[in-house]
From TrEMBL:
Coiled-coil regions listed: none
Key words of the record: CBS domain
Keyword Metal-binding recorded: no
Entry-linked Pfam families: CBS
Protein name in the entry: CBS domain-containing protein
InterPro entries: CBS_dom (IPR000644), CBS_dom_sf (IPR046342), Diverse_CBS-Domain (IPR051257)
Protein's organism: Winogradskyella ouciana
UniProt domain CBS: residue ranges: 11-67, 86-139
Length: 139
């Protein structure tokens, strides 16, 4: 495998993002419509947090519903704001960070997505799925 390939070669550049003022029901709709699991929360082009679908499941009391149930109890969403649920201390990388370094971060941390930020501006997202697809392409 080649060394020092930048994460910009595998990151998603067409981002779906949320604002702090959006509601959690809207966030759930975005997760389902776009079949994604992580959404950056932005103020303009600056990342202020990240919301994962797991965060929504955690607050929805999903463990109290039948496992075959696919709908999250949206009534609970009215009790929380995106600001309350999102991860705020977001680890980021820049677009020139190597894929190897990104893989190390994701392998040792308890999250599966990294926002890519250049000069303070969100320019992409890289996920464990992006890394797996990259590895598949290598063989």
């Amino acid at each position: 495998m080649r060394q020092r390939i930048p994460v910009s070669t595998i990151m998603s550049k067409h981002l779906i993002a949320l604002n702090r003022s959006d509601d959690l029901e809207y966030a759930e709709m975005l997760f389902k419509r776009h079949k994604i699991r992580h959404i950056p929360v932005v103020s303009g082009e600056i990342i202020v947090g990240i919301l994962s679908y797991t965060d929504l499941l955690r607050i929805s009391f999903a463990d109290a519903v039948d496992e075959s149930e696919s709908e999250v109890d949206t009534l609970v969403y009215n009790m929380f704001t995106i600001d309350q649920v999102m991860a705020k201390n977001v680890v980021t990388v820049n677009s020139q960070t190597s894929i190897k370094e990104v893989a190390k971060i994701l392998a040792t941390r308890e999250f599966h997505a990294l926002p890519v930020v250049d000069d303070g501006i969100l320019v992409g997202m890289v996920t464990t799925t992006d890394l797996i697809n990259y590895l598949i392409d290598q063989y």
